Amino acid sequence: MPLRTASFRIAKILGIPIYLDATWLLIFSYVTYLLGANFRQQHPQWTGAQPWVLGILTSVLFFGSVIFHELAHSVVALHYKIPVHSITLFLFGGIARIGREPSKPIQEFNIAIAGPLASFFLAGAFGAITLIFPPGQMIGALAAYLAGTNLLLGAFNLAPGFPLDGGRIFRAIIWGILKDFSRATLIAGASGKVVAYALMGIGGYMAFYKNDLSNGLWLGVIGLYLLNAAQQSIAQVTIRESLAGLHAADVMSHEVPTVSGHLTLEEYGAEVLRTGRRCHLVLSGDRLVGMMNVHTLNGVPREDWAHNSVQAAMIPRERIQWTSPEEPLLRLLERLLAADINQMPVVSGAGNGAPQIVGMVTRDSILRVMQTHSELAAQVSGK
Ligand SMILES: [Zn+2]
Asked: How far is the CA of 112 from the centre of ligand 1 (A)?
């Protein structure tokens, strides 16, 4: 998700924590305001706070409907033993964060279609309520609005642009036909871009030719969001392909620079400048006690460097994250990014005899492989 803002937990359903993103408050107040104003205009007989109370209630039920939609995805995912980490409501609706990609096309198909089906179910249920309570009454007005929005929600999500539900259904079908997950993702990602540009085009048309600035702008922003998401899914496949079959041993450097823990940080800084090496294992005698790098050095104020030792500032041995020569590069890169660290020592022979540090893997060395891969790919396809 491109938006990284504060979010708070409001509930836990089926063991899944439900979060509200801070951006959600914006859209909630806006929707509530629009609804209240709308109800007051359409039902002048309603007095005082009535239209606003109904506005808030409708708004809450609308966002409840979005959660219901995401829960439907989640229940099917859980059925396939795919963990669901969270459901978050944010500016553009809801998102269910599932633990991994489905392993079969039919699983993805069922997980994706569950959401729109749930929305259509709610549309039908609210529609049935309007048959009992006419829209002139408060309950009827509320139900009519929710029937309409759930219908729209289900239909919009069926648009065949990845990562919308329709795009996932589309990917599942192509995946099933081609038996190739990566190519299916690339094709669905391309369709996602088409849908995104179409939304921006329609948004622009509404804003400039129909004088409907707010709806036009809104479609444009959703288009931008989808474009970004589609590009990310394409980039992920590219990364996955360039790192396929490679392991830590392929990119590690075999030299393992060491420093003594008794060095002051001043001296360590000088060592880094002299050698250009940015990461060292810290020894006390010939015992490994920790790891030191430029990032950690920069965490200490410059004026404290003279009277602090490497041993006092380093990452202690028990907090170092290790890799093995056999670890697949994709997983290693994910671990580096998740822990926000730049390098990991490579340890071999944990099985037989004493474990031994055989090298270092850096984030840069993995990125170089990806870059070289894309340069070669461009040469091969660009002639
Ligand atoms: Zn959905």
From this structure: 6
If you measure from the C-alpha of residue 73 to the centroid of ligand 1, how many angstroms do you get, rounded to a whole number? 7
Contacts of 126 (CB under 8 A, 6+ apart): 143, 144, 146, 147, 150
Contacts of 38 (CB under 8 A, 6+ apart): 55
Rounded CA-CA distance 242/244 in Å is: 6
Q: Pseudo-torsion of CA 189, 192, 194, 195, nearest 10°?
A: 170
205 Cα to the center of ligand 1, angstroms: 27
Q: How far apart are CA 272 and CA 262, in angstroms?
A: 16
Contact of 279 with 294, CB cutoff 8 Å: yes
Our CA angle for 186, 190, 195, nearest 5°, is 145
Strand partners of residue 357 = 347
- Distance, CA 208 to ligand 1 centroid (Å)? 30
Closest CA to 199 of 220, 173, 227: 220
**Ligand 1 centroid, distance to 178 Cα (angstroms):** 24
What spacing in Å lies between the alpha carbon of 164 and ligand 1's midpoint? 7
- The Å distance, Cα 82 to ligand 1 centre, comes to 16
> 134-151 pLDDT, tens per residue?
777 788 888 988 999 999
> From the CA of 35, how far away is ligand 1's center (Å)?
24
For the chain, the residue count is 383
**Of the candidates 111, 145, 113, 109, the residue with the CA atom closest to the CA atom of residue 126:** 145
CB 337 within 8 A of CB 259: no
pLDDT bin (cut points 50, 70, 90) of residue 347 is confident
Query: Ligand 1 mean position to 90 CA, how many Å?
Result: 14
- The pocket of ion ligand 1, defined by CB under 5 A, consists of 115, 157, 165
Q: Is the pLDDT of residue 3 over 50?
A: no
Residue 306, amino acid: A
User: Cα–Cα distance between 248 and 375 in angstroms, integer?
Assistant: 21
Report if pTM > 0.85.
no
C-alpha of residue 299 to centroid of ligand 1, in Å:
42
Helices 138-157, 105-132: crossing angle, 10 deg rounding? 160
Provide the pLDDT for residue 383.
Answer: 38
pLDDT digits (tens, 9 = 90+) for 91-112: 777 888 887 788 899 999 999 9
